[in-house]
Amino acid sequence: MKRTQILHESEKFSRVLEVKLKGKSFSTPTYFPAISSYGIKFSLWDSIYFLTFHKFPRVLVSAYDLHNSNERKRLLTLLKKHAKKGFLYLDSGIYESSWKADPTWDIGSYKTLLSQVTFDLYSSFDIIPTGRSYEEFRKETFHNVLDSCVFMNNNIFIPIIHGSSPEELIGVLRDIIAEHSQLVGNIGIPERDCGKSVSERATTIIEARRILNEVDDKIILHILGCGNPLSMLLYSYCGADIFDSLDWLKYVINPKRESIEDFAYLELLNCDCKVCSDPQFENAEYSQKTVLHNLLFYQNFVIRLQSLIRNNNIKGYLQGRARMGKILDELDEL
Predict the structure, then answer these.
(1) Which of 101, 250, 266, 305 is the most exposed place for a label (fewest CB within 10 A)?
(2) What is the pTM of this model?
(3) Domains defined for the chain, CATH in brackets
(4) pLDDT (tens digit, 9 = 90+) per residue, 83-117?
């Protein structure tokens, strides 16, 4: 039985997928709130406990952070309980280890951590191209994808492809498809590697989606580090399926504008969502209330995004809501 099924295809490359695994399922496009030890003011324990306590159905955690946590045993117990009904996505942690300049984190450490955790989705131990020639980068990327796939039988494996430019990113993607198509059941690419402007990024995602569709149109395309609602709308139109980011912890989402604002701005939004209007949250601590507001937004937003696709109206919504008709016209010519 296939894990991924296309439920509806719509304008450009937008579609709704159903992903089934271990008796559970989720639909795409969807969002995984990411948890990281770098660049946020909340502790790893607080972030994971918060998401699992409030039963958010999808969580992405850095394997590097789990490996280095003094509370690893408690965290693994918490995540194992969460994974009974929700989805746990383990990221390789290269983002955190790179920022912290930690050379001890390698693929062997990653595989050891994977063997200790109950999870559903996981990434390859990705390689950042900085300081490498293209051939070195390409070779090491392929080697790590092959070496990371050992846990894929009972889980969803998502190889991560980087590039120092959109052209390099697409080149590596083409090469890995040509040489190792049997491993590419899914692919992840960072938003920042897709280009500098939103139109360049959208163009890169369209090209990636076309390449993947030549192999199998049910291949999941994950855009890493993307939580801006407008970007999620546009990239879903271009064929993206999964998004993750730290935005839910770093900013506040304006539901009426579907935009990201300063974390301190919740009280300026005049928001009437359940978190902002329900008396039970009136005296909640500000940070907790803001994060709950964000999580509720993302949960409602992905449902609305899927509905737009099912009703063949994602392009019209983008044109009217975001006023990006020119970009859409250019993308439709590709």
Answers:
(1) 101
(2) 0.96
(3) 4-251+295-325 (3.20.20.105)
(4) 999 999 999 999 999 888 899 999 999 999 999 99
